[in-house]
Structures are given as C-alpha cells and as structure tokens.
C-alpha cells in the first residue's frame, strides 16, 4: 500500500479490497506458473487445472475493474500491471486453442491482446521509474516484448497479415530501444524472432490484388461446401480425424481436429506426443502425422534392407558437445539415432494411420510394411526440385503449399507473383469443379488400394488426397520437372492412369494454365511425357 505510516487512516473496506486483490494476484501467479509442470500432451489431465486457473484470472480481472480507483490510490496499481493480467488471460486462451484446436479460443486471445495495445497498457513501461517499479527495467521491458511476440503469433494464425506487419514494425522499434538502453545479451535472440516472423509474412509467394492494387488477404480455412461431396450410394470408410469436426461455418465455435504442433522436437519428445495421440484416439478415428524435416540418409548398404535401413527425417539432436565438437556415439554400421525411421512408426500402424512426409528423404517412407492390416496411407513429397525452384525453398515447401493452397502453389510453379482478385476467384471456382472430377476418379477406380477409400469418408483427408493428385499431375505435366524424383509418391501407390496421369486431370490442368496464360510451361499432349 502507498503512504507508509498512514495505514491507520485507510478505511477498513479499502484495506480489505487491497488485501483481496493481493490474494487473487498471488493465487493467479501461483496457478499460472504451475501450468509449466503439466504434461504438454494428454487430453484430460490439464482440463481441471486450466479451469481453476482461468476462474481465478476471471475473478482477478473483474475485481480490478470494479475496484480500480481504490487500487490506484491505495495499492499504486499501474497500467502495465493491468496489461500483465490481460496478457496472461490471452495466453490462457491461446493454450486452450493449442490443447483443443478450437479457433474460438484463438479469437478470444486476439481480443485480449488487441485490447492491451488499444488501451496502451504497456505504453509507460519504457518510462517507468526504476525505484517505483517492482521489476528491474530490463525484465519489465522483456514482458512487453514477449507480449508483442505472442500477439504476432496469434495474428499469424488468424491470417491478420496487415496487422502483423504493423506489429512487427512496432516490435522492431521496441527491440532497438531495449538493446540500446540495457546493452543486454539477448539481442541476437530477439533479432531471430523478427527474422522468423518475416519469413512467415513472406511465405505466400503470390499476392492477390484488388482493383485498387491493394493486397487482398486470402483465407485457406475450409468453407462450408468447400470439399467435393460423396456420390450418392458411394460406399467409403467411416474413419474420421476426430469425433467432433465440421468445416468452418458462421457459428461462433469452429471445430477442427485436435492437434499437436511440435517445432524441431527431439526423438523422445516426438515419440511421447505420438504415443499420447495414439492412446487418446477414439474408435473409428485416424491418426494423422505430418512430418516436415531435413532428410537423414543411410550411411551404407546392408544385405537385409529393413525399416531402419533407408534413413528417415531428422529429429533435434541435442548431442553432447566437447570442446566445440559434436560427439558421435555410433559407428558407420549403426543407425542414426536422431532420426524418425519408418520402423519407428510401425507400432502406431495398429490403428488407422495417415502420414504426410515433406522431406528430401521422403522416399524412405514408401518402404512401409502394413503389419497389422489397418488402413495405412503415406503421401510423400518430391525429393528433388528443379534448380530454378530451389531458390524458393527458403520461403516454404512447394509440396506443402500444394496441399494447403493448390492455386497459390500452381501460380508459384508457373512463376507468377501476383494476380487480380477477379481472376483468382474464377480460378478457384474452376479448381473446385476439377476437384469433383478427381474425387470421382479416385472412388470409381477399380485398381485403387482400398486404404485410400477407407480414409475418403473424412472430408479433410478427402481434400488432402484430391490435392495430392492435383499436385502430382501438375508437376508431371510441367516442363521443368523432368526427373522422377521430382514427382510426389505414395504408399500404397496410386493407379497412375486413373489418377495422376489421367487425361481428364491433364485437360483440367491445361485449361487452368490457359486461363492464366501460362500454357507454354506445360506439355500439351501425353506423348511428350515419354520423350524424356
């Protein structure tokens, strides 16, 4: 309380207000810090603890709103402290999103982060009198920088790219001021944050422009009706990614499959999350694994080629370093331990498994064996790209772009960097019709492996399969893609004549190319495909 020695003059009710606020503040910090001890995976363990933490923060937020004047006068409540409470609530909503994948929580996090900026809660942080502030100068400014970083991540996930650019500029200025004032050692780390955000902002290789030449932010969330419907009477598997999922509608609670997002995990971390996901998988559900990582190649040939003899994708090494050199703990005859080998996924094939691998050694995963007879599909990226395409790899993978935004990938592979909004929408409508034909070819094929049809009942997996066929067919027709290693593959193999080399799919691709005036980049008859 402010005014030492004058405590006796403070009315009892106001003293109680300050005491109650301090209790709620301490309790909220205690509960929030305890979140770090919860396992990051697991669907049930976290819910009760999250609920208690959220309840306390809700009470704290309402309490400071109801008693703001008393807290200002008797406690010396500062605006950055209010901002800290709002920021913590935003973090709780964000973690709810990570745990449940429900975008409504992401929108709530955005609302709190946005209010912090609009109300300038952190504005005076850089000017706080160090003697009056409970935290030393650098630590308080770091709180502000972390708030900016979290706000930017939420905006990226919500595709609010115009706001991201504004926030990045503000964060850059804050980092520059911070490093000049305090001469800290974490300048490189904050500059790396800026670089990674810039990479995300520049990841979309194509700009969509309206009539005023302003950039239009396009959304790739699935709209209602955005997935080709099953033909009447078509019998496909009833497997789903989640028991509660529907495309984005107008309702405030948009549901998507629960997922875990791991950035450069160690093998132990990755396997722990895979095991938890496998354990939680409901009946008639699918485990989808998307791997995007550097390829690990085998060091030598062996007489027996098993599931650990083809390499795989790199996991975070965290190897021991002595005198600046990495300690290698294996001989040439041993396998790379910091690698997810195809054999490492075998235990998870006891349940339906759908795998996407985007890597320079994705082909290692075509050597799968389906040991347990459960539905199993692997979609595998090209392992080699034409030299003219390799310069774009730092901005994201072409294969992943085809699965995420096929039209943007098509434009990118054709060297187009911008497009008018009207033509973009026309091309999107054309693609949607083409997807319907591709879907019919998949379901009507007499030689297709039944595993593909087992997964076809789920709308998200259906769209992935259709986009995969479109990607593969496009690259096979493109004149720059001349090596077989430049084409996507799958396990089991798709019947080429019914899908990726179908004359109907090729005609759709050539019509789209003509619409965009880039037909000269593609072979215009199937005979040319056999000439190389």
Automatic annotation (TrEMBL):
The keyword Metal-binding does not apply. Residues 161-188 form a coiled coil. One of its GO terms (biological process) is DNA-templated transcription. Keywords: Coiled coil. Pfam families: SCAI (PF12070). GO terms for molecular function: transcription corepressor activity. This is Protein SCAI. It comes from Synaphobranchus kaupii (Kaup's arrowtooth eel).
